[in-house]
Amino acid sequence: MVEKKVNKAWMPIAIVLMLLCAVTVLHDLGETPTIVEKEVIKEIIKEVNVSVPMVPEAPTVSEIIGYLIDELFLSVGLDEETYSDREVITLFDGKVKFDGDSYDAEETITLTDGIILMANENDYEGNVYMTILEEAVEYTMTFENDLNTSLIDEEDTLEFNFLGESYEVSDWNNDLGEYEVTLNKGIEQKVNLGECVVVDGKSVCLTDIGADGDEVYMCVDGEDNCKDIDEEKSRTINGIEIYVDSIFNSFAHVIMGEDVEVTIEHEDEYEEDSAFEYVITKSSIGIKLVEEHSEVDLDGDEEFQAFAKDSGLCLPNQYVCVLFNGMSEEDTEEYNLELDEKSSVKYVRVDGNFESGTSDYDRIYVNVLDYKVFDRDFDEITGTIELGDTDSKLITNVTGLFFEDFNVNYALDESNIGTGDEDYLTDFGVLVINPEDSVEDNEFNIFVPEKQLEGSISLI
User: Which CATH number does 148-269 carry?
Assistant: First the structure.
């Protein structure tokens, strides 16, 4: 009997694809994945990322769950773009119901040119960070214009998910050109009779259901903190506001949090000390970033810092994150520059790999008076001089020596990158070690990448 061997290498991928099919069905039905569902997706992706083998043409994690934005260059802002569920699967694009009718609704996230990869700000130490300026990130839930938000009231509410939380709006008001909404916000949960759930660190228990099924008896952190709550009403118990949406024989649907019913005005802070504020119009509600993330504080005192590799900015509830993946890892050529003198003629001696025509060199001399280049034997090199295995060329002229966008004069006491005491990475990707010491010692140590460095970010 021949034993059949099952190739399990594809099983993790199959699991993820099945999961994505389920999420896609939710989209088709007009449902948004909740925060919990989104976190489950991320956790499964983590596990798959560890176990998926390197199989040719196998889908990558970024292809499955994230959207890659690549070919980003240092000091150049991101092209402004708006992304939807076509790029980020957890964003919603479907229908909401209001007053018996269905209306189109869509979640989007917009990124602007205020997202910039930078390398040489204070305390960057030659490392690359993703900086995000104010208003560079905006999340929006938009409803079609036929949905008349002015008709929303306590009898005809509008329900939708916002950043993964359940919102039920009972008023959408235009107050002298500034919009405000009144809503129940929070995560709706089914709580069984006798069950306890944790909300904001406190234990909330459904202790009893009234005989007529029109009220519940709930406790928060002990039997000393209990109250009756009628259906479609809210009460605050021990700092937790509880709104009872519906009651059944053995369970109830409730919305719970520190503030369940709130009125939000345009440009209100999303929550205390948040980096986001609300943006409300006639047919949309969203948030935008209002805190700049550009500084690096090695002591950790700066609340809103720039983002190093493998870190990023998340919307509240980690609903969508902008992750900095880092820069491309290119092979480099190392060059050491110092002053030299031969037969009373002054040169800049450069040690490193060079190519010109069919000849290779590991040291050249540049005459500081006529800028001509010579090999070790002081035979002139007249052709184009390439920098080892890179795509770059050495340029010499009256100004000095050029290694792509790094320029240094022939005295080796002045360059175009200043005299900072931290390693400097040019926009092309040339790394200059400690410019301050280099100028003082008239010696430079630099690394030139094989090609210009590129970065990437992901929306996940």
Answer: 2.60.98
